[in-house]
Amino acid sequence: MTIKVLFLCTGNSARSQMAEHILRELGGDHFEAYSAGTHPRAVHPMTIKVLDEVQIDASHARSKSMDEFADQKFDYIITVCNKAKDACPTFPDDTQRIHWGFDDPAAFENSEEEMLKLFRQVYIEMVGRIRPWIAAVDKQGVIS
Fold it and tell me: Are 101 and 15 in contact, with CB atoms under 8 Å apart?
């Protein structure tokens, strides 16, 4: 059985994009990963750069609105920012909702080098959250 997951954040430019691509990479055929934003804006170039550094191809990533997925069924909806958690639409009752708050690396106005460090840090935090979650879901089938 494939587990279908939607990652939500505000802009779908950094955090949810990273989470989608990390889950696709680490979860293999066990997961279908998607991402969307409550107010989508272009995918941040540093999102692509950081994923490229770890050999995850996100060159075709595009920002998507959560409205694009409104009629689809997901096993899990994972919000990665507080604003998305508050704005999360109603999905079927059997959809597991999870919230993992991550800082938005695109929200900080720093030098390119400092921003890249922030994007890398969020990537590391996400891998640290997603990897054990995958193991728990594979083992139990349900986790929050």
Answer: no
Q: Which of 13, 48, 30, 40 is nearest to 139 (CA)?
A: 30
Span 39-64, pLDDT tens digits: 899 999 999 999 999 999 999 999 99
Q: Walk me through the domains of the chain, giving residue ranges and CATH numbers.
A: 3-140 (3.40.50.2300)
Residue 85 scores a pLDDT above 70 = no
**Per-residue pLDDT for 30 more than 80?**
yes
Q: Reduced to 3 states, what is the DSSP secondary structure of residue 7?
A: strand
Which residues share a beta bridge with 8? Answer: 36, 79
**Residues near 60 by Cβ (< 8 Å), separated by ≥ 6?**
none
Q: What is the pLDDT of residue 86?
A: 58
- Taking a C-beta distance cutoff of 8 angstroms, is the pair 69, 36 a contact? yes
Cα–Cα dist 99/140, whole Å = 19
The helix or strand, by DSSP H or E, that contains position 37, with its residue range, turns out to be: strand 31-37
Across residues 115-144, what is the average pLDDT? 85
Instruction: Give residue 30's identity as a one-letter amino acid code.
Output: H
Which residues have a catalytic role annotated?
9, 81, 88
Tell me the three state secondary structure of residue 67. helix
